[in-house]
Amino acid sequence: MPDLGRREFMELSGSSVVGSALLRQRRSRLIPADRGRFPFGTHIYREPHRPLDELRRDLPLLKRLGFTMIKIQECWNIDEQREGEIDLTNVRTLVADARQLGLGVYFGVTMELAPAWLWRKFPDAAMVLHTGQRYLNPTQYVLPGDGKPGPCWHHPGARAAAIQFLEYLGHEIGQYDNVWVWNVWQEIGFGFVPAESVCFCPYTLPAYRKWLQGRYGALPALNQVWKSGYGDWDEITPPRQYAPLPPWVDWRYFMDDVYFAAALRWKGTALRRSDPGRRPILAHVAGVTLGGSNDRRYAEALDIFGVSCYPAWPGWSRWEANAPALGAPVSRVQGLNHELWENVILRGDYMRSASRKGEWWTAELQGGPVHESAAYPMGRTPDPADIRRWVLGNLATGSRGICFWNHRPEIFWGEADGFGLLNHEGQPTPRARQAGDLGRALSRHAALFTQGVHPRSGMAIVVNESARHFLQASGRDRHMAFTIQGIHKALWDVGGATDFLDVGDLPARATDYPLLYLPFCQALAPEVIGWLRAYVAHGGVLVAEALPGRYTSYGLGAFPGGMPEELTELFGCRQQGLIQIREPNNGARWTENARSYGDAAAFAYLAGLHAWQGHQLFPAFYLQSFTPAGATPIFQYGRHTVGCEHAYGRGRALLLGTLLGHGYLGYDDPHNRDFILAVLARQGVFPDLPGGLQRRRRIRGRQEAWFLYNSTEAALQVSLPASGYTGARDLLGEPLARAGDSLHLSVASLDMRCIVLQRPAPSSAK
Questions:
Q1: Tens digit of pLDDT for each residue in 209-260?
Q2: Kindly report the CA angle at 246 between 245 and 249, in degrees rounded to 5?
């Protein structure tokens, strides 16, 4: 398209002429990295929106600042107010303006925000609660929850209407070659409806039964697994009042994994089918599900998986050691370190692991102060250092695209005044300028950051969706998430990186890791036990917490040795006893009220034995003791063996009768961290903490990025070995000196820097 003058541009971008002109031109898919641009944007539009002229005036400013992309959130209920009458004028205008300015578009469609006519036409499209009542909330507003849960997408009429709209939108907006990606679900989920409450409608239940037939084949096979007595498939209904039952595990998998993944696929298919450029399909979650693998199911259904990231929003768990007391302030060091670890690094590591090909974006990144309700005050206003730390932290864990929320402060009710990079008048703030500087710098190395990989970690934490559902039904899933958090933080604090591995990937990918960590995993399927045994037999090292496989994945237990015989052989021991253990000084972060005398053991450190003499462990919640049957006792509580190590095949299996993450995260105790580091060291895996800086890497060919974080209260002057690199520069042009094979730099307190390095091309053979 030829360049237009300002007047022509303003005239054409508000009409259909631009769209018509595009129809006559050759269309080619625009890949940002191929054009030297990193997908770095900000959200600008959703309903109710700021005046359109105001938004259009903002676009040139965003371009000048350094943004390469804008995000638009389209709302189905606004654009198709009458059935079959679709008006895309607003979003088309903004996409056309962005194209003229050379800005990409990250285009989101909010299909859960269904139009009023759909609810009138299909009153039975509403989700049905476990009580049998319809969930009637046909909201017209993105707040709260973007209209979620929306219609039940098993309803054929609602789904057909949604597909028809998506196909029209894909064809019309797809004419613009600056659309880089489609987002088909903003924060996947049911919104504020408890997931276990839906959906019991007459369309979901037959779909569930059909899925069960595919899973089990014959009804007797299902009855055998569930220990049920159904005589016909149509008799099956999910548990409504009581969760700890075998059907509940399958029901939750169906709704948490199958339902959402299927909706992502048909939405994506509708857009691909109609989009002339076949742009990638993205959807994102509000946060990751620690211990589960539903995030992997979503990623498998998409080209790009995404996550929201509001580092200063979530706050602390009351179980955490440094959680502020009611009314007490949070110190700067503790607060900023906590938000970077939990809300950026942990989240990013989980996303990278869920996205097998590494294609994940920070789909929403906090741009201004958090404001979640008119009843609560604003959060702190981020400064440029926050923006830099958050952006670089996401990149350090592997993010390949970043989009802020929002470009100006929001204008609607609960979130009004919050989240904006610019001020209300549209003037850049210091944090907006910092964001723009980062955007320009990233585009100078677009290929590195859109294609560069985070090296595989030396340890993976094993995650298991059915085990999570079992613990969820048992009221213990918080313990699984907390111990995972504690293990991850223990390693992050000393420069260690952690991946997460789904049990379904054990056969193909377990041997990529010298060490696997099995967190609190009471329920294990026979095939998972077989995969763990094979991993160890082939030379791997497995560290497991208390009660592995105490139950099958469907809640059947009562094994003579406290675990199936296959695990007894793997760990070389049997259960001797099981009791809860109290916290130090009879604390009550997670300890429950005693029911009677002798319910729990007094707290005491576990003492190391044999090769682990001199080590101690901080036990938490469970204290499972063992009788060795070939294993070597390695930790004891009094005279009881509470940890065993067993040679199995070419590898080793370590079983610890307690939960290890709690001690580090809940009491800031280093003993469990030191033990894990020692196990890793035996495998040749060591932390990456040069000069006291936590380091992460991204690598593409001969180019490499080092992300260096200083978690301390004082600036650190460091000298880093850089032998074998021919060039090195700071991403943002900050001072960096080289002397011989060393780089010399300073990193301010709670700051992160990124150094881009180059290796020489291999010399050609003569």
A1: 999 999 999 999 999 999 999 999 999 999 999 999 999 999 999 999 999 9
A2: 100
Gyration radius from the chain CA atoms: 27
CATH code 3.20.20.80 region(s) in the chain? 27-200+255-451
Extended strands (E) in 221-352: 281-285, 304-309
Question: Cα separation of 505 and 520, whole Å?
Answer: 19
The segment(s) of the chain belonging to CATH 2.60.40.1180 are 690-758
**CATH 2.60.40.1180 describes domain 690-758:** yes
Question: Do 60 and 171 contact (CB within 8 A), yes or no?
Answer: no
Other beta carbons within 10 angstroms of residue 452's beta carbon come to 20
Tell me the Ramachandran region of residue 327: left when phi exceeds 0, alpha when psi lies from -120 to 50, beta otherwise: left
What is the per-residue pLDDT across 468-503, written as a single tens digit (0 to 9) for each? 999 999 999 999 999 999 999 999 999 999 999 999
Tell the CATH superfamily of the 459-682 domain.
Class I glutamine amidotransferase (GATase) domain (3.40.50.880)
- Cα angle 471, 476, 481; round to 5: 90
Is the whole model's pTM more than 0.90, yes or no?
Answer: yes
Beta bridge partners of 358: none
Can you count the helices (H) and strands (E) in the chain?
24, 27
Q: Which fold has domain 27-200+255-451?
A: TIM Barrel (3.20.20)
